[in-house]
Amino acid sequence: MAVDLAFVWALILAFAVFAYVVMDGFDLGIGILFPLLKGQRDRDTAMNSVAPVWDGNETWLVLGGGGLMAAFPLAYAILMPALYAPIIIMLFALIFRGVAFEFRWRTVRSKYLWSLSFFGGSVVAALCQGIALGAIVQGIAVADRAYAGGWWDWLTPFSLMTGVALVVGYALLGSTWLIMKTTGELKATATRFAWISGIGTVALIGVVSLWTPLLYPAFWERWFNWPATAFSVWVPMLVTACVALLVQGLRRGYDTQPFLASLGLFLLSYIGLAISLYPNILPPDVSIWRAAAPDDSLLFLLVGAVILIPLILGYTAYSYWVFRGKTDPKAGYH
Question: What contacts 24+ positions apart, CB below 8 Å, involve 149-158?
């Protein structure tokens, strides 16, 4: 039985991107919330809650970008010129944020500047990621296997809306992460932010869900024509269930349930995006198979991925296991 290597690599890249979004999402969310936290003690505790894992989370971004270039070179060649501006700004924001994360602990006089830099880098990176996502969903102009659009095609009302939606969604992940990892007044503060960002996230999910099928007739057909409806109808039902679990967890003061419910909202949104796009890797008409590298190359890459990805998952799981539980407010970052 022949294996569809292009489809396998599409699944691998989809997994890598989702892993990055959920793992780097909550520490970007903490950066987004940073100015709203009360005092240096709470800010230090929030930073300490992600200090052992934040840089490892970005491994998935490297895997996603490198995997796209190697496994789907046509998609990479089209996508990069189309999104040079938001991607370059995002990378600079992530670098600046990482520098701020380290330098904030090395100074006293300029600590407020690095705190502001941590906040700014987090917001800009999240906004650019959402804008890039919106630009992809709304479609990339292609002619003769190359990008045929303009410099500013990525900047539209839809892409700006998805950018804001991702910032709010990351704030939800960050606040529910703090609920899980902290106690006392900081947990209470995080709970208030989780209510606000949760309402905003659900509202923006609704806006995106209503807007996306209107972008292309093919999106509408994949959501509302039979037999696709038999599968797509489950997505909003499960979103409703996740919202109910989030509300219940926040009301009852549970530690873990709000974070898991927030992850569920992201996963279901991601599945909804996949329903809209499949079988295209770049809408409106660049399919997975059209963009894929030759099968020999995909097979060679797959051998490396089969070895590398379990290793990444292993050390990531070990890191989270070692640093499980609540964050000690008296602990320092070294």
Answer: 149/82, 151/85, 153/82, 154/82, 154/83, 154/85, 154/86, 155/131, 158/134, 158/211, 158/215
